[in-house]
Amino acid sequence: MPTGGVNAPVPVAPEATPAVDPRLIVRQEGIKGYLAEFRRRVSSGELGSLPVVVALIVIWVVFGSLNSSFLSAQNLSNLSQQIVGTGMIALGVVFVLLLGEIDLSVAYVSGLCAALFAVLNVNNGVNQWVALLVALASGAAVGVIHGLFFAKVGVPAFVVTLAGNLGWNGLMLQVLGATGTVNLSGKDIVSRLYTTIYGQQIAAYGAAVIGIALFVIASLVDAARRKAAGVPYRPMTDIVVRTVVLAIIAFLAAYTLNQYKGLPLALLIFLIFIVVLDFVLRRTTYGRKVFALGGNIEGARRAGIDVAWIRISVFSICSTMAAVGGLFLAAQIQSASQTSGGGNLLMNSIAAAVIGGTSLFGGRGKTWSALLGALVIGSIQSGMNIEGLSNAIQFMITGAVLLAAVVVDSLARRTQRAAGRA
C-alpha cells in the first residue's frame, strides 16, 4: 500500500538564494568577501581582463628570458609609443564590437584620412590645423555613411564595411595621385604630437599622480552617490585595494619611461582618449544605450532607444578613431603612401580589441581592451623582431593568440549561461 495519507506533510521546495550585489558582500566581509566575490566571478565565467593580463605577463616573461633587452626601458618606451596608432583604431573598433557588429574598413579609412592631411598640408599648403580638422571630419563622415546604410537601408555591417574597405582604398590612391607618397615635413602638428617626449621626470610622475587622483575622486563620488540613493556601493576597502594596484602600475610605468627619454606625448594622448571614452561608455546615458543595444537589440528598441541613431553614431566614432590612428601611423613613418592602411593593420586593429577582452558577441567590453590588446600584439611583434623571427611566424602566433581570445570569450559566455548570468 502507498505510504502517507491526506494529512502527510507536503515537502516544500527550498527557497532560491537571492542574488546579492557583490559590493554588498565586500562591504560586509571586507577582504574575505572581496576574495569570495573574485572566486565567484571566475567560476561563473566573468573573467574580465584577467586572461589578457595573464597572457601579457607570460609574453613578457618569455621574451624577457630569451633576451634581456626586451624588458629594457628603451624597448618598453618605444613599444608604448609604437602601439598608439593601432591602439587608437582598436579603440574605435571596441564601440562597434559592443553592438555585436564589425567594421572591416577601419584600416583604409585611417590611410585615407592620413592621405588627406598630407596632401592638403604638404602639397597644397593648407593650414595644418585646417588639414587636421578636414581629416578628422572626413573620418566621421565615412562612419555616418556606413551607419546610414546599415541602420536605415538594412545592409549588413559586414557587407557595408567590406565595400568601404575597397572603396576607401581606391579613394586614398586617387587622393595621393601619381606620386603615391607624400612625405610629412616633420614640423607639422601631427608629427609633433607623435615625436614629442617630455624628458623631465616630473612629467611622467605627475601624469601618474593625476591619473590616480582622478580615479580616487571618481570612486569616492560614485560611492557617495550610491550611498545617498540607498543602493549597494563600493566599500572603502575595495577602493583602497584598487587604488594601490593602480598606483603600483602607474608609478612603475612612469619609472620605466623616465629611465629612457621620458613620457611620450602620443602615449599620454592615447590614455586620455581611453579615459574619456571609458567615461562615455560607463557613466553616460549614451554609453548605457550602447551596451543595451549590444546585449538585446529588441529589448533596447522596446525600451524606447533610438536604435538607428546609436548605430550611426557608433560607426561614426569608430571611423573618427580610425582617422586619429591613421594620423599617428603616418607621423610614425613620416609619410602617407599607397601602403597606408594596408598589410596586417586591419587584422591587428580588430585583434587588439578582441584580445583585450571585448566580446565578439556584443554587450561586453571596455575601452581599456584597446590598450591591453595593443600591448599584447605589440609585445609579440617586438619580441620576435628582437629574436630575428620572420613575419610568417609573427602572423601565426598572433593568429593563435586571437583564436585563444575568442575561445576564452566563447567558453566564458557558455559558463555564464550555465550559471544563469547571461
TrEMBL record:
One of its GO terms (molecular function) is transmembrane transporter activity. CDD domains: TM_PBP1_transp_AraH_like. It is a multi-pass membrane protein. Its main location: membrane. Part of the binding-protein-dependent transport system for D-xylose. Probably responsible for the translocation of the substrate across the membrane. PANTHER family: ABC TRANSPORTER PERMEASE PROTEIN YPHD-RELATED-RELATED, XYLOSE TRANSPORT SYSTEM PERMEASE PROTEIN XYLH. This is Xylose transport system permease protein XylH. It comes from Streptomyces rubellomurinus (strain ATCC 31215).
